[in-house]
Amino acid sequence: MKTYLPKLAVALALAAGTASFPAAAASDNAQLLRDANTTVSHLKSDPAFGTARTMIQNARAVYIVPKLVKGGFIFGAEGGDGVLLVRNGHGWSAPKFYGMGSASFGLQAGLEQAELVFIINSEAALRGIQNGNFKIGGNAGITVATLSGGAEGATTPHGGDIVVWTSATGAYGGLTFNGSVIKADDDENAAPLPAKDAAALRKNLATVW
């Protein structure tokens, strides 16, 4: 099974745009796709998702991070692997692999793991991610809203260019995304795509969106 914790070690460099993700085998990609499929199932059963279904009908893409881990003492970091699927004329595209990471400094302690689904509503936001090294909060004109049990205001059809559904557990009270970088993982994208797991994820998405 793929281990996500080591990504925390490179998140500081990633946030500065100086790190790349480690190589991944096809078996790692398969596990990530299976985890992403599980995250979609969790999202479907979350009452906080609610009226976001209206928003998803017009979404340009989704970016799914099954295991984002945030932790640290004095220095903090967060990181995780994810998959991007773009809406096309036949449903959803084949998944592409992207990593997410950020860093912070301050008096903090704890460990939190979260599932994330980025609902990408605008072409500008999608192109920003696809063009590489997309920094949340650093792209002029791109708005980001969070959708969770305590964020009902983000459930309107026009909640933002990107709306993030999150389900988090652990010592931290919440997650912030400003400063987080989303970057294509060239090594994982060069590996053979596990067709069966990719098809299962696309099928699960199609039952909701």
Topology record:
Elements: H1 7-15, H2 26-44, H3 52-56, E1 61-88, E2 91-92, E3 96-120, H4 123-130, E4 134-135, E5 144-147, E6 162-170, E7 181-184, H5 186-190, H6 195-206
Parallel strand pairs: 5-6
Antiparallel strand pairs: 1-2, 1-3, 3-6, 3-7, 4-7
Summarize the structure.
The protein has about 210 residues and is of the alpha+beta class. It contains six helices and seven strands, in the order αααβββαββββαα.
Structure description:
The chain is α+β, with helices and mostly antiparallel strands and 209 residues long. The chain has one domain (7-206). The chain is 28% helix and 35% strand. A hairpin with a 2-residue loop joins strand 1 (61-88) and strand 2 (91-92). Helix 2 packs parallel to helix 6 (195-206). The longest helix is centred in the first third of the chain and has 19 residues, at 26-44. The chain is globular and about 45 Å long. The two termini are 28 Å apart. 41% of the residues are buried. Mean pLDDT is 75; it is low at 1-24 and 149-157.
Q: Mind telling me the C-alpha Rg?
A: 16 Å
How would you describe the shape? globular
- The computed structural class is alpha+beta
Count of discrete domains: 1
Sheet with the most strands? 7 strands, mixed
What is the H/E order? HHHEEEHEEEEHH
The number of distinct helices, counting runs of at least 4 residues, comes to 6
Helix content: 25-40%
| Low-pLDDT residue spans | 1-24, 149-157
Specify the oligomeric state: single chain
Number of strands: 7
Proportion in β-strands: 35-45%
